What we know:
Layout: E1 8-19, E2 22-33, E3 37-41, H1 48-55, E4 63-68, E5 71-72, H2 78-85, E6 88-91, H3 103-114, H4 119-132, H5 148-160, E7 166-170, H6 178-195, E8 198-203, H7 206-212, E9 215-220, E10 223-228, H8 230-234, H9 239-248
Helix pairs in contact: 3-4, 3-5, 4-5, 5-6, 6-7
Magnesium ion (MG) is lined by residues 48-49, 93, 170-171.
Amino acid sequence: MTEPQDPIHIRVEDVHKSYGENHVLRGVDLLIHRGKTNVVIGGSGAGKTVLLRQLIALERPDRGRILLDGQDVVSLGEVQLNRIRRRFGMVFQASALFDSMTVFENVAFPLREHTRLPGREIRKRVAAKLEVLGLGGTENRMPGEMSGGMRKRAAVARALILEPEILIYDEPTAGLDPIASRNVDRLINDTAEHFRGTSVVISHDMNTTFGVGHYVALLHEGRIRASGRPAEIAASTDPVVRRFLAASGVTPVITHAG
Ligand SMILES: Nc1ncnc2c1ncn2[C@@H]1O[C@H](COP(=O)(O)OP(=O)(O)OP(=O)(O)O)[C@@H](O)[C@H]1O
Ligand SMILES: [Mg+2]
């Protein structure tokens, strides 16, 4: 593991999580760097989504600490946890949007849930966010009438609408073709630049990993097996990392070098 060169936003220490007999997270140690794109990779069923649920305080780990700006969130009460959850924006793995709602209603949803802003202010904020994401004027469209890439943009608009500190994407390219996937990578990079917050990307797409990551960590058998700069992961001699990279068939093309 390398010495961190950027400030730490979230520090995960020895986090364990079991469901019955299934010991999914077995002592995860992970650093999330402020203002950077942090990618967590791992095979299907490795526990990436479970880790993410602990990160955003949707679930409580059985053991370990999660320090957000140095504050341990694991021991907080429900009211404080709700405040913590609002600091995260989520782009979910599957069905990112409510299919029965217009784009406007989808993006406005968190504002309606969490604020008492008047209707005109909500309209203004939604329009501004859609504009930033290249979706200006799509308010009245239904998700089913848009391409996968546009839906992903709308999901990012919704995740950003409460101005979170940390934006999390769970498998953002799952189910998309290679061209749409590279567009999503660009979207993640453009958004990171514009939003200037911290991004966490959960993925098993190696193109995405090396295309967006400033830092990469591999989750394997319930622990972080390797972590560091993309170039360090690409050059790793750890057989587990090598096997993971080889299986993807991707030659790493690194966007954000050291
Ligand atoms: N709420 C739950 N109750 C019981 N078991 C769960 C729960 N959530 C996850 N698991 C189990 O935890 C393990 C890890 O699941 P997880 O969804 O985190 O995998 P993942 O790494 O995100 O995989 P994928 O790449 O397929 O999304 C799996 O064995 C899963 O069955
Ligand atoms: Mg998952």
